[in-house]
């Protein structure tokens, strides 16, 4: 399976503390209308860390139902507990997701051998395509290219990586270790274009929540060898990318969605809190400059 293009790490709307299904369905529809290439429910941006397993299963199911096979769905299903990751992956598979996003176990800091056994155990119980999620800034563990190669060799389900280090040397070494046919996806919106240049196939993006046409257009332009257009779109998104991380993701992006009227408001679950008041005018100014508002 090839994961080519821009995939949105979907923000999850809440209403009175619960998942706002109607708004979520409308948001997914808007993403597809805007030309997004794929959808990723229940990732970091979707606040899966504060969802129950039942809520994760519900969210994935809504996304798959609404997508109706028009674009692939990569469902967040990872955990630092192998047992929990197996349960979540089973739910993603039963819901009809095309792949499961599998984070490297956080906090535990497993050895490379432990990583291999973790993903082998999940695959044994719930075999489906896996996108390994490497985000050391959140997990405390960097899955190096040689360790990823160990996983890929031992677990045929591991067909892609979401590489969120922002390190282009490491990204290039992933292709060197795992081959040209391996799906290297960016998990860092700041470095999508250079990652494509070293052999990447796409991105799982935060900014595409609010600028799906720009991000999907940039990736498409790159593959159509229209580098000038790709660079122009990259430069257009650059200040918005910075704004999306003025506070912890997903605070700015969800606030932006509320400003755009795509979400009714920006509700979060603790320990995530709303955007600081002094940052709201700064965010609004960036969005207006980019033509988003």
Low-confidence stretches: none
The top-level CATH class is Alpha Beta
Q: Helix coverage percent of residues?
A: 40-55%
CATH homologous superfamily heading: Aldolase class I
Number of strands: 10
Identify the strand order in the major beta sheet.
4-1-10-9-8-7-6-5
Regarding quaternary structure, what we see is: single chain
Fill in the CATH topology.
TIM Barrel
Active site: 133 (proton donor/acceptor), 162 (schiff-base intermediate with substrate)
Catalytic activity: L-aspartate 4-semialdehyde + pyruvate = (2S,4S)-4-hydroxy-2,3,4,5-tetrahydrodipicolinate + H2O + H(+)
Function: Catalyzes the condensation of (S)-aspartate-beta-semialdehyde [(S)-ASA] and pyruvate to 4-hydroxy-tetrahydrodipicolinate (HTPA).
Site (Part of a proton relay during catalysis): 44, 107
């Amino acid at each position: 399976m090839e994961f080519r293009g821009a995939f949105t790490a979907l923000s999850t709307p809440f209403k009175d503390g619960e998942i706002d299904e109607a708004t979520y369905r409308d948001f997914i529809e808007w993403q597809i209308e805007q030309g997004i290439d794929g959808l990723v429910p229940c990732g970091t941006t979707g606040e899966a860390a504060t969802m129950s397993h039942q809520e994760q299963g519900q969210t994935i199911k809504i996304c798959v139902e609404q997508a109706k096979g028009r674009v692939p769905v990569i469902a967040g299903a990872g955990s630092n507990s192998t047992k929990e990751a197996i349960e979540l992956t089973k739910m993603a598979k039963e819901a009809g997701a095309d792949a499961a996003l599998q984070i490297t176990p956080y906090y535990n800091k497993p050895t490379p051998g432990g990583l291999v056994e973790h993903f082998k155990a999940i695959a044994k119980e719930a075999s489906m395509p896996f996108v390994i999620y490497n985000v050391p800034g959140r997990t405390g563990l960097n899955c190096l290219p040689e360790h990823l190669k160990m996983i890929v060799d031992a677990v045929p389900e591991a067909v892609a990586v979401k590489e969120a280090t922002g390190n282009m040397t490491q990204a290039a070494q992933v292709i060197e270790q795992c081959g040209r046919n391996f799906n290297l996806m960016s998990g860092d919106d700041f470095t999508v274009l250079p990652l494509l240049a070293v052999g990447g196939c796409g991105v799982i993006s935060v900014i595409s929540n609010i600028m799906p046409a720009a991000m999907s257009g940039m990736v498409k332009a790159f593959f159509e060898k229209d580098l000038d257009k790709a660079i122009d779109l990259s430069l257009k998104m650059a200040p918005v990318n910075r704004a999306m991380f003025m506070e912890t993701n997903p605070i700015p992006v969800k606030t932006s969605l509320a400003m755009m009227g795509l979400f009714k408001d920006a509700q979060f679950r603790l320990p995530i809190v709303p955007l600081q008041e002094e940052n709201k005018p700064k965010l609004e100014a960036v969005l207006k400059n980019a033509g988003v508002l």
